[in-house]
């Protein structure tokens, strides 16, 4: 990168890459990829999405590829702003929807502080894509009147300590747990201690949008025990609540 030129105005666009199936990308996301000068992408965004990128665009991996640690969030923001200040149209591809557990807030703040225009193109979050894959609805009249999305790990990779367990043990809600496969057993223990039945229907959808998609379905207790031993390698969306009743089967 060379010195910034105040006369050149670049931009940053955060696009939601959806769950991995490229036909679930929005037309706007495809259009931004086609006109990008620089594309920053990470592991979960999926390589196929990059086939839509302008062939002359510079493609920069910012995820944990090939065993290398991922660049720190500040470094990603610095890169995006640096390129935008060179007049480049920078596209940052996020998995699912950028507004959900993607640290988009930090990138938006960094762009605003640097006075770089930033646009957000929404995508289909893995939570709703998982429901679609399962052929079910996350809400159900009279059964599930509320949907909540939580992260199963804090900055140390542990189960967050300040979870609202009363809300999470609400029988009338469907809960979508992101980044929760390693901590689900301890979450399940806490939920049961807060009154949620160990028989609550629970489903894990692993590696959605890829040929390796796998489904594990059972009760809260069963799935907690199985995740603790099976240790799935791919990203997992865990859904629990009465809306998931009837999905007591596994699928690969
Ligand atoms: C950093 S969060 C990103 C969430 C994303 N912004 C969204 O809206 O889906 C990563 C977590 O999302 C879920 N996830 C992302 N891609 C997935 C996929 N292809 N299959 C299953 N879960 C996925 C997993 O829970 C994973 O640990």
Topology:
Layout: E1 11-16, H1 27-34, E2 38-41, E3 58-61, H2 73-85, E4 89-94, H3 104-113, E5 118-121, H4 126-134, E6 146-151, H5 165-168, E7 173-178, H6 184-193, E8 201-206, E9 214-219, H7 220-230, E10 236-240
Parallel strand pairs: 1-4, 1-5, 2-3, 2-4, 6-7
Antiparallel strand pairs: 7-10, 8-9, 8-10
Helix pairs in contact: 2-3, 6-7
Task: Summarize the structure in short.
By secondary structure, the protein is α/β, with parallel strands linked by helices. The protein contains seven helices and ten strands.
The CATH topology of the largest domain: Methyltransferase, Cobalt-precorrin-4 Transmethylase, Domain 2
CATH homologous superfamily identity of the largest domain: Tetrapyrrole methylase, C-terminal domain
What structural category do the secondary elements indicate?
Answer: alpha/beta
Q: Averaged pLDDT, please?
A: 91
Low-pLDDT segments, ≥5 res: none
**Structural shape:** elongated
State the helical fraction: 25-40%
Per DSSP, the total helix count is 7
- What kind of sheet is the major sheet? 5 strands, parallel
């Amino acid at each position: 990168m060379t010195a910034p030129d105040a006369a050149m105005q670049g931009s940053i666009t955060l696009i939601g890459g959806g769950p991995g199936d490229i036909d679930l990308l929005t037309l706007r996301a495809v259009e931004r990829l086609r006109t990008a000068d620089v594309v920053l992408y990470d592991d979960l965004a999926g390589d196929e999405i990059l086939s839509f990128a302008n062939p002359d665009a510079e493609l920069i991996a910012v995820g944990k590829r090939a065993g290398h640690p991922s660049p720190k969030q500040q470094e990603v923001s610095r890169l995006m702003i640096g390129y935008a200040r060179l007049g480049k149209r920078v596209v940052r591809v996020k998995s699912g929807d950028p507004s959900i557990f993607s640290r988009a807030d930090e990138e938006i703040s960094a762009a605003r502080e640097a006075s770089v225009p930033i646009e957000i193109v929404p995508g289909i979050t893995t939570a709703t894509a998982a429901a679609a894959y399962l052929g079910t609805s996350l809400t159900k009249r009279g059964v599930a009147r509320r949907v909540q999305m939580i992260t199963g790990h804090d900055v140390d990779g542990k189960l967050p300590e300040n979870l609202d367990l009363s809300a999470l043990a609400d029988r009338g809600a469907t809960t979508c747990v992101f980044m929760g496969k390693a901590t689900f057993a301890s979450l399940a223990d806490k939920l049961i201690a807060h009154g949620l039945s160990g028989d609550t229907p629970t489903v894990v959808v692993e590696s959605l949008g890829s040929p390796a998609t796998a489904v594990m379905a059972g009760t809260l207790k069963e799935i907690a025990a199985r995740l603790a031993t099976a240790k799935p390698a791919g990203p997992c969306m865990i859904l629990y609540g009465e809306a998931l009743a009837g999905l007591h089967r596994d699928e690969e």
